[in-house]
Amino acid sequence: MIAWICGVTASLRVHLPHDLPPKGATYYYFAKWRDDGTDKTIHDLLRRHLREKKKRLADPGLVVLDTQSVHVAAGVPAGTTGRDVAKKVPGRKRGLAVDVLGLVITVVALAASAHENAAGIALPDRVAAVTEGSVTKALVDQGFKNAVAAHGAGLGIDVDIVERNRSDKGFVPQPKRWVVEQTYGILMFHRRPVRDYEHLPSSSESRVYWAMTDVMSRRPTPSTPSWRWT
């Protein structure tokens, strides 16, 4: 199954023309697989496969949570967007839970005006459901408050707020937490996650799963050329 997914993904990358087929021919399957969970099933299958290749358990015991605010395209409904006052970004807030390898466990898309706690409460719920309770610890930054820790405790997840060293100037990666920043950077190599074009937050989440599926499908097949190389 893994070989089939990697082979199909590689074939599509190499042989599809740069101009996609008509929207109706592609969006039908995007929406169908988004709604029935096929996108997450394929993504999680590859994630577990890669973890096992690294001699790790299929599901992690520790996750790192963080959020990123991104601009939205013109035409995205105002009712699903907002303004992140702290980062001065109008658009949507994307919350990720990743393992120590930087692989995405789950994602949540909210209006950028939503507090960090909103993502911090939604993510542990999804993590617990996806990993069937294997996660016992989560690392977060100071943007998340005690409500997140209390909610995590109710799920059996110890939420550890990693405080920034006050003497640090500018951006300084924090031990273990840096992997989520790396994952956000990797997502930026894919056009759709750079700016949120989706009318539905669920579509925004699906775009992240597909972007990471593309990333993960290259790792078992390192000889597959990237579109940036060709």
UniProtKB/TrEMBL annotation:
A Pfam family: DDE_Tnp_1
Transmembrane spans: none
InterPro entries tied to this protein: Transposase_11 (IPR002559)
Occurrences of domain Transposase IS4-like (ranges): 60-187
Gene Ontology BP term (one): DNA transposition
Recorded GO MF terms: DNA binding; transposase activity
PANTHER family for this protein: PHP DOMAIN PROTEIN, TRANSPOSASE
Protein name: DDE transposase
Taxon lineage: Bacteria, Bacillati, Actinomycetota, Actinomycetes, Streptosporangiales
